[in-house]
């Protein structure tokens, strides 16, 4: 029996370890770029020196962001450690891409209201959840029906950034609109079931453990796609969640029409959520928990936006 091709081995290992499909695509792309950079040499014949030269090239010649260079490094370390079984030492001589110290873009309360006023339907509801509950874009897109607790006014985020679960609030003003939205989604799901479909993607090995769970209402996406599509992993036709670019485009257009002269995006609503909570006097540890930050130092950046902390100084001009 022939040994699987290298990239097939990478895919198999990524799926065995339950990496997301998005990460799988990214890692495969970086490994391909690494191989082509070194004139299609097999990674087995290369090591630390070749990895260092590739990463340095990305930083110096391509001028990539620090996060992009780190993503490439993670992909290559996964290849060598998990697939090829080689231990790669810490790459001391790599020229690191500079990580700029930028403050997050934050909208005022009035700007948020103006933005939401220029959205409608599903886009309005999703943007309202991003701001009202502090969700990341993909957390909102991947939200399942079972994780919305109307009675407790909670949203449970499963497998958020870093693979962590957390609980955040469900704004009371969104309960009625969200329930109305879910009634329409339930009709769509019933139609899929009647047509012999209705099976949704389940994480990890749940599809094998609970064969019928994928057709149950609780596992369906809160924001499903308008059309069914072929699952790239299983090859089955099913209804996935909405494409995140749909909301990104809607918010970009709304920002423009609302006359907001800031580079606002979906993530800006999460930044605004945190900042406005701190402005309202909520404890930073509470905000940290709601955002799902591992370290409070990450949440501290919003105090800089507020000009609080050590720089809460009154100008001498204002004391005249």
From TrEMBL:
CDD domains, alphabetized: INT_IntI_C (cd01193)
Domain of life where this protein originates: Bacteria
GO MF annotations, alphabetized: DNA binding
One Gene Ontology biological process: DNA recombination
Pfam families for this protein: Phage_int_SAM_4, Phage_integrase
Domain Core-binding (CB): residue ranges: 1-84
UniProt keyword terms in alphabetical order: DNA integration, DNA recombination, DNA-binding
Domain Tyr recombinase: 102-315
Keyword Nucleotide-binding assigned: no
PROSITE patterns: CB, TYR_RECOMBINASE
NCBIfam families, alphabetized: integrase_gron
Xref: PANTHER family: PHAGE INTEGRASE-RELATED (PTHR30349), PROPHAGE INTEGRASE INTD-RELATED (PTHR30349:SF64)
Family: Belongs to the 'phage' integrase family.
Protein name, as recorded: Integron integrase
């Amino acid at each position: 029996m022939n040994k699987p091709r290298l990239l097939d081995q990478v895919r198999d290992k990524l799926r065995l370890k339950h990496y997301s499909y998005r990460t799988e695509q990214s890692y495969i792309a970086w490994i391909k770029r690494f191989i082509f950079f070194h004139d299609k040499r097999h990674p087995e014949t290369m090591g630390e020196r070749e990895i260092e030269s590739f990463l340095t090239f990305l930083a110096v010649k391509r001028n990539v962001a620090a996060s992009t260079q780190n993503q490439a490094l993670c992909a290559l370390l996964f290849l060598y450690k998990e697939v090829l079984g080689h231990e790669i030492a810490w790459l001391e001589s790599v020229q690191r891409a500079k990580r700029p110290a930028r403050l997050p873009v934050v909208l005022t309360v009035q700007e948020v209201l103006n933005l939401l006023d220029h959205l409608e339907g599903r886009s309005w509801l999703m943007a309202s959840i991003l701001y009202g509950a502090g969700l990341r874009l993909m957390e909102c897109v991947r939200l399942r029906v079972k994780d919305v607790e109307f009675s407790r006014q909670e949203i449970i985020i499963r497998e958020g950034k870093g693979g962590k679960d957390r609980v955040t609030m469900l704004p009371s003003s969104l309960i009625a609109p969200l329930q109305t939205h879910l009634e329409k989604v339930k009709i769509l799901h019933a139609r899929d079931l009647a047509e012999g479909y209705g099976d949704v993607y389940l994480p990890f090995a749940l599809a094998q453990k609970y064969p019928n769970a994928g057709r149950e209402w609780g596992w369906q996406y809160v924001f499903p796609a308008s059309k069914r599509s072929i699952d790239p992993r299983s090859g089955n036709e099913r209804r996935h969640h909405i494409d995140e670019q749909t909301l990104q485009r809607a918010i970009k257009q709304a920002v423009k029409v609302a006359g907001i002269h800031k580079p606002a995006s979906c993530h800006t609503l999460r930044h605004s959520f945190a900042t406005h909570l701190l402005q309202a006097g909520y404890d930073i540890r509470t905000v940290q928990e709601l955002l799902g930050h591992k370290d409070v130092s990450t949440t501290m950046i919003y105090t800089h936006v507020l000009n609080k902390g050590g720089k809460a100084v009154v100008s001498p001009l204002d004391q005249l």
